[in-house]
Fold this protein.
Amino acid sequence: MKRKIIQTADGSSSLLMEEWGETYHSKHGAIQEAKHVFLQNGLSLFKEQSVAVLEIGFGTGLNAFITFLEAENLKRQIDYTGVEAFPILKEEAEKLNYVLQLNANQYDKEFSLLHTSEWGVKTVVSEYFSLTKKQQYFNEIDDKNRFNLIYFDAFGFQYQPELWSVEIFRIMYEALKEDGVLVTYACRGIIKRAMAEAGFTVEKLPGPPGKREMLRAFKK
């Protein structure tokens, strides 16, 4: 499916799937959405401890990069796994402006490494951050009791409802450790019910700019 680079409202770039009219991030601001959903309402729950993160939809690498920057800032060990069935092209990654927009010019090489590192192999990006990328479908994930936190950043329900099913959320539930957390930008009733049926305790939270609510789910 054809993609093109766009600029979102906060100045940060994203990719647009032209056939769907769907973007990889919020048009209201890619960086501010990522920080609000995944850092503020996800990673911040894990204080002064190492964290194993699973990202569902590695995409542009934005969520991985802001998490890397947080690991560097807090000097906290983060073991990051990103799952993506259809990786973006190296040429597309080079046109994304996240390093500039995040005032992270000293980490330009690390952002490039997120995209150029070998798939299926753990890459040590820095003293505090390691990355394993897996090119697979979400229903092929077979990890058990491994992750503290899941960033669930799949394309919207209206485009790929099968990615928001009870089946997928059961896989997520099994992948999390006890007291693990899943966060997502989405907040449809059908998604909340699917999470609950999979075993999660689910709550609504205020969403990022341009979106009223988001969901956070706990494995108790």
Notes: The longest helix spans residues 62-74. Residues 29-218 form a domain with the Rossmann fold fold (CATH 3.40.50.150). DSSP finds seven helices and eleven strands in the chain.
